[in-house]
Structures are given as structure tokens and as C-alpha cells.
Specification:
Largest sheet: 5 strands, mixed
Shape: globular
Family: Belongs to the bacterial solute-binding protein 3 family.
Distance between the termini: 69 Å
Protein name: Extracellular solute-binding protein, family 3
Oligomer: single chain
CATH superfamily of the largest domain: Periplasmic binding protein-like II
Strand order of the largest sheet: 7-6-8-5-9
Number of helices: 9
CATH topology of the largest domain: D-Maltodextrin-Binding Protein, domain 2
Domain Solute-binding protein family 3/N-terminal: 45-267
Radius of gyration: 26 Å
Strand content: 15-25%
Structural class: alpha/beta
InterPro entries: Solute-binding_3/MltF_N (IPR001638)
Signal peptide: 1-26
């Protein structure tokens, strides 16, 4: 082989190698370019995510969702404070990707993947502190007028009980509205999530020493889970297996318990979608 042909062959090989490397480099995404951005729709939810009078939500749910985003490799953004009922509509339309702190229902399962991550806490009956009536059994509820939270999914056992008492149930949009009805004597008691309602009472000075937990057990021996919801119409619905896996790991390695046990504090500024 002549020197000229050898030189030509060498140049050809080098050029082919350079073109191949350039092609691979061009196909590699720029940093952050392909990072999924999942939009979390949320309202204020006492004790779990605080979203009143602040621009940035904070609380255990926010910490948990940030940790999930870190592990699963997506960027977490969130809506402005949005009523839960509207969040459900947006999830059904695929206009938002995520919700959290959800109990299972067939209606929710139809529009989103429900990914379990923590056990539920039974609901409680909150009455006025000066109401001395003993309410320890479901039969004793028959003489009471109660208020429940619209759009909140109660445990199956309690949902069945509330349906039996439909004529004696008033619905309101929030825990705070329910507490107001109780304290004004318009109803006898509020049936609501134990932890969030206790937090709502503790956060308002005028509520201190005005309510008590009646102590009735609504669980009927049943237990369940709360879930993160991923819209079935989300562009990132295919991430369902990896999100499910990471949530299960976070539950098993103690991350969920640790995050929910920590004191509530304001979180660093997150990304908000207007």
C-alpha cells in the first residue's frame, strides 16, 4: 500500500470517527432539557401542607413530594392554592399531573393511578368542650346533627354510616367552616380527619379549649392507605411504576415516618405555575 493511500485511509477513518462522535453528542440532551416537570395540584390541608397566606406551601406533604421528585428524577412544580374539587377536574382532564393525601375510591381510581405511601388515620367526631353528652357508639349518633366535609373521601365504614344519616348531615367545604358551625351551636359535631382538624384547632387561638374529641371509634376494625395520585391522562403517566416503587421504598426505609414526624416549618421557595 502506497503512502498516499495509507494517508487517505487514515484520514477517512478519523473523519468517520469524528462524525460518529458528533452524532452521539448531538443526540444527548442538554442538562435539564429532558427532565420531566410534574405539576402538583393542591389546596391548603392543615398539618400536611400549609398553603394559606404564603406563596410557597410547606409541611410534611411538601417534603415528601420533594423527596419523591429527587429519587424519581423529575422537577416538582405546583399550582397556586386550588380547591380540591377543581384539582379533581383538572386531573380528569390531564391538565395537572399529581395530587396527594388521597384515600382510595373507585371514582378516583378511574381518573388517576393511586400510589399508596402511608396508612390512614381514622376520622374523629369533634364536639364542643362544654357538650357533656357521651358519644361512644354509633347508635348514640342517631340523636345528633353532624357536619361533614364536602369532597373529602371518608373511610368506607364511615361513608356507609354517613349515608345512613343523610337527613342529619350538613356538608361544608372546609374543616374550618365545620368548626365554626359547631362552635356556633348550629350542629352537634364535626366528623373530620383527626390530625388535620386537631391542627386547625391548635392554629386558631379562639378555638383553644373549645372543642374535644368525642372518642368514638369509626374504624370498625378496618385500615387503609393514603395515596399520591398520578393522572391517567398525564403526559408522564408512564412514570407510574417508578413512582410506585420509590414511594414503597420511602415507606419501608422509614422516610415517610421521619418526614411526617418532623415539626412543620416553612419550606424553601419552590416552582409555581401561575
Amino acid at each position: 500500500m502506497t503512502k498516499a493511500r495509507l494517508l487517505c485511509l487514515t484520514v477517512t477513518v478519523m473523519l468517520a470517527s469524528w462524525l460518529a462522535a458528533a452524532t452521539v453528542q448531538a443526540e444527548e440532551p442538554l442538562p435539564g432539557e429532558s427532565e420531566p416537570q410534574l405539576l402538583w395540584c393542591l389546596d391548603h390541608f392543615s398539618r400536611f401542607h400549609h398553603y394559606e397566606d404564603v406563596s410557597t406551601p410547606y409541611g410534611p406533604s411538601v417534603d415528601l413530594m420533594q423527596e419523591l421528585a429527587r429519587r424519581a428524577g423529575f422537577k416538582l412544580i405546583f399550582t397556586p392554592q386550588t380547591p380540591v374539587a377543581r384539582c379533581f377536574r383538572l386531573m380528569a382532564e390531564g391538565k395537572v399531573d399529581l395530587m396527594s393525601n388521597l384515600k382510595f375510591s373507585a371514582e378516583r381510581d378511574a381518573i388517576m393511578h393511586l400510589l399508596p405511601y402511608n396508612k390512614t388515620v381514622p376520622e374523629s367526631l369533634f364536639v364542643r368542650q362544654d357538650d357533656r353528652r357521651q358519644v361512644e357508639t354509633e347508635a348514640q349518633l342517631q340523636q345528633l346533627t353532624l357536619v361533614s366535609i364536602r369532597s373529602y373521601v371518608y373511610s368506607p365504614a364511615l361513608m356507609a354510616l354517613l349515608k345512613q344519616k343523610q337527613r342529619q348531615i350538613v356538608e361544608v367545604d372546609s374543616i374550618e367552616a365545620g368548626l365554626e358551625m359547631v362552635i356556633r351551636g348550629r350542629v352537634d359535631g364535626l366528623v373530620a380527619p383527626t390530625v388535620s382538624t386537631s391542627e386547625a384547632i391548635n392554629s386558631v387561638s379562639s378555638y383553644h379549649n373549645k372543642f374535644r374529641n368525642a372518642g368514638i371509634d369509626f374504624s370498625r376494625g378496618q385500615s387503609g392507605f393514603i395515596h399520591v395520585g398520578l393522572s391517567r391522562l398525564s403526559p408522564y403517566a408512564a412514570m407510574e411504576p417508578i413512582l410506585r416503587q420509590h414511594l414503597a421504598t420511602m415507606l419501608n426505609d422509614g422516610t415517610v415516618e421521619r418526614l411526617y414526624a418532623e415539626p412543620i416549618r416553612p419550606a424553601p421557595q419552590l416552582n409555581t405555575q401561575p
